[in-house]
Design brief:
The chain is α/β, with parallel strands linked by helices. Helices cover about 40% and strands about 10% of the residues.
Length: about 280
């Protein structure tokens, strides 16, 4: 579906679901989730991913691997919104004995992997893509990476592995929000020029504005039928905390949820920044 207003409204709804679940739990990576709302909206509601919420284990489904596992609230939100389970279940996020862990849990319908350790999901995704090639399967593997995650050596080992094995059925999306843990990536360990680095590792590189639904739709266009053998990475330039102004681009909000008056402010700013219908 290429209905841009619909996808923008879906991204807004996902942000609201994330915020409410984290406020209730008094924890969760709110800002890490907010930056990838448009990415997840386009993937799950824009006709990119092939899946069946009534059959989460459908053999021919595309695989989506959340490698930046700290953004689990966003994946839980989009899975609920896509019909894998009731959105009301999100109220049990980060609750004792519940399925929705602060980091991603495979026990959640639609989740392919338990993930939290940086770099883990990307290697898993490459393995799934190689297995699909070996089994002559035609599904795609999509994986969402964090930019702080790109400071891990395992990311670059997997990048070499995927290019060497000609995994053109693998698409990585890099949520380039320029922050990691409690600092900006370029202060902590410089990553740029990321596009040239990924190209040097043999990848097809596309760089886009990651909060733009049209730009994201255009980036994904044609990847399924692409015949060149190398894997693809979409570097999506985003804003950490997008949608909530006072939390945006503030490293100290990493892994924290607003409470009290700040929760009210977050809700108000999210509504003020809602896309026009």
């Amino acid at each position: 579906m290429n209905d841009i207003p619909f996808l923008e409204q879906k991204a807004h709804r996902l942000r609201k679901l994330v915020l409410e679940s984290c406020i209730k739990a008094k924890t969760g990576h709110v800002t890490s989730s907010m930056s990838c709302a448009e990415i997840m909206s386009v993937l799950f509601h824009g006709g990119i991913l092939r899946y069946d919420p009534k059959r989460p284990d459908w053999p021919d489904r595309d695989r989506f691997i959340l490698s930046k596992g700290q953004a689990s609230p966003m994946l839980y939100a989009v899975l609920a919104d896509a019909g894998f389970f009731d959105p009301k279940d999100l109220a049990s996020f980060a609750q004792k004995d519940g399925p929705f862990g602060v980091h991603l849990q495979k026990s959640v319908p639609g989740a392919e992997i338990t993930c939290g350790s940086l770099g883990q999901g990307f290697g898993f995704a490459a393995g799934l893509a190689l297995a699909a090639k070996m089994d002559l399967k035609h599904h795609m593997v999509f994986t969402l990476l964090g930019d702080g995650e790109n400071q891990e050596g395992s990311i670059w080992e997997t990048a070499m592995f995927a290019a060497h094995n000609r995994l053109n059925n693998l698409v990585a999306i890099l949520d380039r929000n320029y922050q990691c843990v409690l600092d900006f990536t370029e202060n902590f360990l410089s990553l740029e020029p990321l596009d040239k680095k990924w190209e040097a590792f043999g990848w097809n590189v596309i760089r886009v504005e990651g909060q733009s639904v049209p730009a994201l739709l255009n980036a994904f266009q044609g990847l399924r039928s692409r015949r060149r053998p190398n894997p693809t990475i979409i570097i999506a330039d985003t804003t950490k905390g997008a949608g909530i102004d006072f939390m945006s681009c503030v490293p100290l909000w990493h892994g924290a949820a607003p409470a009290g008056d700040e929760a009210k402010q977050a809700r108000a700013e999210l509504e003020r920044n809602a896309p026009h219908a």
